[in-house]
Design goal:
The complex is a heterodimer. Chain A has two domains: 98 residues, Translation factors (Elongation Factor Tu (Ef-tu), domain 3); 155 residues, Nucleotide-binding domain of ferredoxin-NADP reductase (FNR) module (Rossmann fold, 3-Layer(aba) Sandwich), CATH 3.40.50.80. Helix content of chain A is 20%, strand content 34%. In chain A, the strands form three sheets. Chain A has a seven-stranded antiparallel beta sheet with strand order 4-3-7-1-2-6-5. Chain A is globular. Chain B is an alpha/beta fold. In chain B, the strands form four sheets. Chain B has an eight-stranded parallel beta sheet with strand order 9-8-7-4-3-16-15-10. In chain B, strands 5-6-14-11 form a four-stranded antiparallel beta sheet, with no helix packed on it. Chains A and B meet through strand 14 and strand 15 of A and strand 5, strand 6 and helix 8 of B. The complex binds flavin mononucleotide. Flavin mononucleotide (FMN) binds next to helix 8 of chain B.
């Protein structure tokens, strides 16, 4: 059951000129959250901006006894709301509704797990990586960005024992390519009998490419979509994604309640 | 304190109603609000058959508001009756169905389907959706069309019939009048204002349907004025809406002449808004010594002496 917390900003760490990690005093949401779920944030008060914005729950910060103490979100400054989030000072109130949406479905060994992230699409994978590695699942992160300065939290993933495969568009760190290129190579190399689950989050063209690759190699793939959302609760039908049903018909599915995690092989790409 | 309001033969336990298209089918919100505590909930607009609606993007935020062109995606009247109504009944919700049609016959047919079902309290006739090509607003933008569709549905059901009026006309009160003449039990207003937003860099419209309906606080003063005009013209109850985001906003509509109010866009921002607005209204009634919320309806004071005192 989602709750609305008038959360205070506990910290705001700028990672670059437009990325930041905001720590929010919303332990109850953190305690209930599962990897892949999101919150609807209202960083301003009043009518401008009016609507909340969806953000993946990036981390659940825990106290010494392991209890959830706060959540963080990873944000990229794009519009008015993300600008407020970029500029939010500690103590500021940010209304935080969550946790919302259908989480990732985890896997267990001997299955491997490959997470594919593009840019701010890294957000849902910190908690997923914790869940997977705690179960002993061999986990790899394919992570692409425009440049090396926009690849974040690498030490966090390394500390969990996650294998990192990095790409940048300018070649400053890792391979100079889109993140799908090394993914395709690895898919081709991997023995078909070794079970594997793919998880992807990032820009739509990247998700479409990952979906195609996963289909070509017969691998199940869960994608987390980021659509414009009005409410996050299934009320407004803004965030729909065209998806193919069992009977072959295409329906507009609300990504806030049927997702944000969706089966890649059902999504109809534009 | 008496919070109940009457809409024709229907009594609502309080004047707060969830607006069509802004509350899903109601069941989506059962975890966050006790549906039985709302005056009523209005379903998403329903045709006879399911519809998929428009492609994305379907909404864009505007100053103090939003533009939407969902395109009336919906599961159709029969599936609503079979799949959603039982749960709504079990949860004690008062259900008003928002009935759509592309032809007069379809309005009548959908009204029959929902009238035959157990647990529908009233029909809200959507003759005002700006986002679909055929039907709907064609009826709502013509006085004869409004009269005809309301009369036809009136004959086909025993439920209260509440046409929902569009603000995209010169004189909305004349449409309220036509609806009253045709036998409407009440009117709802306003639906959204036809509007448009352009991305100047790409010169592309911001939503796929190019034009859409504007809602939220930005439209409130216009909606209040329209409710007030209708109150001067018709005797039937009015369900007023447009940009209500707190108790003060709701009270404006009641004082202007609405018997009940609907909340749409603000529920997206705060799904827990219902209790807050109701508390605010009861606080106000206490402060002003008002025993019945019905006594506030149309209580606008336009005397010149009163203005002199302020
Ligand atoms: C996303 C969205 C969907 C809507 N869908 C419907 C609908 O199906 N039927 C209808 O009669 N009105 C629909 N409306 C209009 C609202 O019910 C209401 O009349 C309008 O939004 C003004 O109220 P508000 O400012 O409180 O939102 C919709 C509005 C929005 C924002």
């Amino acid at each position: 059951m989602p709750i609305d917390v008038p959360a205070r900003v506990l910290a705001n760490r700028r990672l670059s000129d437009d990325y930041n990690v905001l720590t929010l005093d919303a332990p109850a949401i953190g305690a209930a959250a599962q990897p892949g779920q999101f919150v609807m944030l209202k960083p301003g008060t009043g009518a401008d901006p009016l609507l909340r914005r969806p953000f993946s729950i990036f981390e659940v910060l825990r106290d010494d006894r392991g209890a959830a103490a706060a959540i963080t979100i990873l944000s990229k400054r794009i519009g008015p709301s993300t600008r407020l989030i970029f500029d939010a000072v500690p103590g500021r109130r940010v209304d935080c509704l969550g946790p919302l949406g259908r989480p990732f479905t985890s896997v267990a060994p001997p299955s491997g797990a490959w997470m594919i992230a593009g840019g701010v699409g890294l957000a849902p994978f910190a908690t997923l990586a914790e869940a997977l590695t705690s179960r002993g699942v061999p986990t790899t992160l394919f992570y692409g960005a425009r440049r090396g300065g926009e690849l974040f939290y690498l030490d966090f993933f390394r500390a969990l024992g996650v294998e990192l495969i990095l790409t940048t568009e300018d070649g400053s760190v890792g391979e100079r390519s889109r993140v799908v290129a090394p993914l395709e190579r690895r898919l081709a190399e991997r023995s078909a009998s070794a079970p594997l689950m793919l998880y992807a989050c990032g820009p739509e063209p990247m998700l479409a490419a990952v979906a195609r690759a996963s289909a070509r190699y017969g691998r199940p793939c869960q994608i987390s979509v980021e659509r414009i959302m009005g409410c996050g609760l299934g009320g407004c039908y803004s965030c729909v994604v065209p998806m193919r049903a069992d009977d072959g018909a295409v329906h507009h599915v609300r990504s806030c309640i049927a997702g944000p995690v969706l089966a890649a092989d059902r999504v109809v790409w534009g | 304190m008496d919070l109940s309001v009457r809409i024709g033969s229907l009594t609502l336990k309080n004047p707060l109603v969830a607006a069509s298209g802004c509350f899903g089918y109601g069941v989506e919100y059962a975890e966050v609000v006790d549906l039985s505590t709302l005056g009523a909930i209005v379903s998403k607009g329903l045709f006879l058959e399911p519809r998929e609606g428009h492609p994305s993007p379907r909404i864009v935020e505007t100053p103090a508001g939003m533009l939407n062109a969902i395109g009336l995606q919906g599961i159709g009247a029969r599936r609503f009756v079979d799949e959603k109504l039982p749960e709504l009944r079990a949860r004690g919700a008062t259900v008003i169905v928002n009935v759509c049609g592309t032809t007069l016959d379809e309005y009548v047919e959908v009204s029959r389907v929902v009238s035959d079902a157990e647990g529908v309290a009233a029909i809200e006739l959507n003759i005002s959706c700006p986002n679909i090509k055929e039907g709907g607003i064609q009826f709502g933008c013509s006085l004869n069309g409004t009269f005809d569709v309301v009369s036809a549905v009136r004959k086909a059901t025993r439920l209260p019939v509440v046409p929902k009026l569009t603000p995209n006309v010169t004189d909305v009160a004349s449409f309220a009048h036509a609806a009253e003449d045709a036998g409407a039990d009440a009117v709802s207003l306003v639906n959204t204002f036809l509007a448009m937003v352009i991305d100047v860099e790409s010169r592309r419209p911001k939503i796929s349907n190019v034009v859409g309906g504007l809602s939220g606080p930005a439209i409130r003063p216009i909606a209040v004025r329209m409710v007030w005009e209708c109150r001067q013209t018709v005797k039937i109850p009015i369900l007023g809406m447009g940009g209500i985001a707190d108790a003060r906003d709701a009270l404006e509509f009641l004082i202007a002449g609405a018997n009940a109010v609907q909340i749409g866009t603000a529920n997206f921002v705060d799904p827990f808004i219902w209790g807050k607005v109701l508390d605010g209204i009861t606080d106000y009634m206490e402060r002003h010594g008002v025993a019945r919320v019905a006594d506030l309806v149309g209580s606008l004071d336009t005397r010149e002496e009163a203005a002199d005192l302020t």
